[in-house]
Model the fold of this input.
Amino acid sequence: MNHRRLPWPAAVLGCMVFLQGCGGGGGDSGGMQPPPSAPTTEQRTAAATTTAQSDDNPCAPIRPFYWEIGDENSSLASGSVNSAGNPAVYTATTPMAIASASKWIYGAYVAQLRAGSLTDEDIKFLTFRSGYTSFGRCLPDQSVDECVAYQDNGVYHAATDGLFSYGGGHMEKHASLIGLGPLHNAGLATQVRAMLGNDIALSYSQPQLAGGITTTAANYALFLRRMLGGELTLGSLLGTHAVCTNPTTCPQARNAPVPTTESWNYSLGHWVEVDPVVGDGAFSSAGAFGFYPWIDVTKTWYGIVARQQASGQDPDDNLGEGYRSAQCGRLVRKAWVTAVAQ
Done:
């Protein structure tokens, strides 16, 4: 009998006809299965919307707020979640003080100024290990240099040099060192926008690089999209030079605004959410009044939870309402990535 090898298409056809003989018959699921398809934008949007509007997760107590998720090209989903007990309505164009979300913008400014080649001094200041740990506040009409000289803002502490200590003194002193010292609010905004994009509308209510910006979710989203798209150098540096921040578990940390039940790292003006229990590696920069922007660990998606709620805490030295927004935001982020409501 002449046994000749069938050509590939015929062999496949034979396998399809004689399914039992090729091991594909019956109820056996061991055969080749098509790879699962990625969720659609519609599925992701439905899951994120349900999560943001839930009455039974951390998003419920922070109402009202606005949320948005997008990619490097555009916003893909968004919504205003209102509150029966609070008449405020937040949208993409609502101006608000973003407090410590200003830090990410300053980090991006420095990375752009240096064309990505940060000095050791830059890295030390942007990861809050410079020893300038006595910052209080700036007055609205001061210049950067005048703010550094105000009260104990510019006092250097050798004992905290090299230790992570969250606060505005690092960026304020650094700004003075790199030539921003003579600038007041308007001049600061002009300088930052010239480096990051003049179409990003922002202003400073005080000359504080770490916490003084007022802007909108729409404008901050444009900033995040530029990092995702590679137009801003910091996008390729996200998470680099990160340091541990939890003083209960890290000997190199002095103080952090994140509850000690969670351990995040800090990179160049932004957090890296790497807590082993609830972290997903996202990059973020929460502000004390509730403004919480993020980029996911794959650098594919950005998101924002935007609101302004007085926290009773220093807007620079504590996450305050920003941590509450982060608890909601990370659920919305997970819902988007998985297309499963949280």
Remarks:
- The chain has ten helices and 13 strands.
